[in-house]
Amino acid sequence: RDDKHVIELAIQQDWNALRHASDRLKNDPEIIALAMQQDWRALEYSGPVPRDNEQIIELAIQQDWSAFRHASDRLKNDPEIVVLAVQKDWRALMYSGPMPRDDEHVIKLAIQQDWNALQHASDRLKNDPEIVTLAVQKDYNALYYSGPAPRDDEHVIKLAIQQGTNALGYASDRLQNDLEIVTLAVQKNAAALAYAGSVLQNNVDLVELAVQQNGRSLMYASDALKNDPKVVKLAMQQDFTAFYLADPELQATEEFQALLRSLIYRK
């Protein structure tokens, strides 16, 4: 098992023979390279020396990106090695060390493949509006992985809202109380009112804009506006079932009982 010639003969028949080699030969780059010419998984039987060998790891990655997980900690922090793996599949980032996760080039390369790669970026890059914008351009849900700075960036949030109004839910408290930002979201989908700050949920103009699109968005209005006759009428005219979302005192009035009956009959 410690005879290099014997092990080479065995490996030429089947790379799995490597498992029976001595620890010394499992640390021999030539032996490992010979086995890996058949299958990169031979790396799983190798010792620490080949796992810290650039040529061995590059050879393995060229066969399958997931081989990267067997690299040494030093090579998991080597930008060149990580780029080689990430070029094949962004998921290689999950096995990388902290240095490549803080490298703009590596993270951009990964995000260009899949926005989910943002989750593996460093905290610094998760707070970089440029990096987050790149991910958000692919899917606004990338904001789920972002830090607080991009969530408080008007440009990033507006871009996200253009894709999906639920993006407002990822915005900072400041932007959820920004009339321009929230109006943009509500214009696209009245249900975005759900993510507005409490001050804006009590804004008559904004709530009227919402209920005229979808009467049932009345559920997201403030208690005061659920008791506002004008707002509730607008909501009911769009969807008569908004009646059941109004303040109970308003529901009990004859005026609104009659309005409900007329709307149901009209339907």
Give an account of the 3D structure.
The chain has helices at residues 4-13, 23-26, 29-36, 48-51, 54-63, 73-76, 79-88, 98-101, 104-113, 123-126, 129-136, 148-151, 154-163, 173-176, 179-188, 204-213, 223-226, 229-238, 248-251, 254-266. It is mostly helical. The longest helix is centred in the C-terminal third of the chain and has 13 residues, at 254-266. The protein is elongated and about 100 Å long.
Keywords summarizing the entry:
267 residues, mainly alpha, 20 helices
Topology:
Blueprint: H1 4-13, H2 23-26, H3 29-36, H4 48-51, H5 54-63, H6 73-76, H7 79-88, H8 98-101, H9 104-113, H10 123-126, H11 129-136, H12 148-151, H13 154-163, H14 173-176, H15 179-188, H16 204-213, H17 223-226, H18 229-238, H19 248-251, H20 254-266
Helix pairs in contact: 5-7, 13-15, 15-16, 16-18
Short description:
This protein has 267 residues and is mainly alpha-helical. It contains 20 helices and no strands.
Q: Give the number of helices.
A: 20
Query: What's the average pLDDT?
Result: 94
Tell me how many strands there are: 0
> Roughly how many Å is the radius of gyration?
30 Å
The arrangement of helices and strands along the chain is: HHHHHHHHHHHHHHHHHHHH
Q: What percent of the residues sit in helical stretches (DSSP H or I)?
A: 40-55%
Largest sheet: none
C-alpha geometry: elongated
Our estimate of the beta-strand percent is under 5%
**How far do the termini sit from each other?**
86 Å
Which assembly state applies to the chains in this document? single chain
Kindly name the structural category. mainly alpha
Low-confidence stretches: none
